[in-house]
C-alpha cells in the first residue's frame, strides 16, 4: 500500500470540477496504479472526511504539434470523489469575496 501523498497527486482545477463541488464531488489526479480502495483511504486520511463513492477515469494522451514536430501529451488517471453530506474539502483554503 502506497502513502496517501503518493496516491493523491493534485486537485484538478477546471470549470467542471468547480461545478461538481456544488454536488459535493471533488476531482483529483491520482497515481495510475492506485485502485479505488486506496484512493478512498487516502482522501479520508488526508482530509478527515467520509467518502461515499469513487469514480476513476483513465485520461488518454492527445496528439499535439509544435511546428513540425508531432508528439503526445501524457496519460494520467482522474478520480471524482463523492463525499458524505455535510463533509467538505477546503481545496484552495479560505477565499474572501472582497475583490
Question: Could you explain the architecture of this structure?
Answer:
The structure is a single chain. By secondary structure, this protein is α+β, with helices and mostly antiparallel strands. It is 23% helix and 35% strand. It has three helices and six strands; from the N terminus they run H-E-H-E-H-E-E-E-E. The chain has helices at residues 4-7, 15-21, 36-47, and strands spanning 8-11, 25-30, 51-59, 63-66, 69-72, 76-83. Strands 1-2-6-3 form a four-stranded antiparallel β-sheet. The model has no long low-confidence stretch (mean pLDDT 92).
Number of helices: 3
Specify the structural class.
alpha+beta
In sequence order, what are the helices and strands, one letter per element?
A: HEHEHEEEE
Task: Give the strand content.
Answer: 35-45%
Computed CA radius of gyration, to the nearest angstrom: 16 Å
Secondary-structure topology with pairs:
Blueprint: H1 4-7, E1 8-11, H2 15-21, E2 25-30, H3 36-47, E3 51-59, E4 63-66, E5 69-72, E6 76-83
Antiparallel strand pairs: 1-2, 2-6, 3-6, 4-5
Keywords:
alpha+beta; four-stranded antiparallel β-sheet; two-stranded antiparallel ribbon; 3 helices; 6 strands
Can you give me a brief rundown of this structure?
The protein has 99 residues and is α+β, with helices and mostly antiparallel strands. Helix content is 23%, strand content 35%.
Amino acid at each position: 500500500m502506497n502513502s496517501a501523498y503518493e496516491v493523491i497527486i493534485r486537485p484538478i482545477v477546471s470549470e467542471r470540477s468547480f461545478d461538481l463541488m456544488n454536488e459535493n464531488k471533488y476531482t483529483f489526479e491520482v497515481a495510475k496504479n492506485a485502485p479505488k480502495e486506496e484512493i478512498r483511504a487516502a482522501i479520508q486520511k488526508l482530509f478527515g472526511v467520509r467518502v461515499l463513492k469513487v469514480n476513476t477515469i483513465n485520461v488518454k494522451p492527445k496528439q499535439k504539434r509544435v511546428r513540425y514536430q508531432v508528439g503526445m501529451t501524457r496519460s494520467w488517471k482522474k478520480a471524482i470523489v463523492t463525499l458524505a453530506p455535510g463533509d467538505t474539502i477546503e481545496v484552495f483554503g479560505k477565499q474572501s469575496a472582497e475583490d
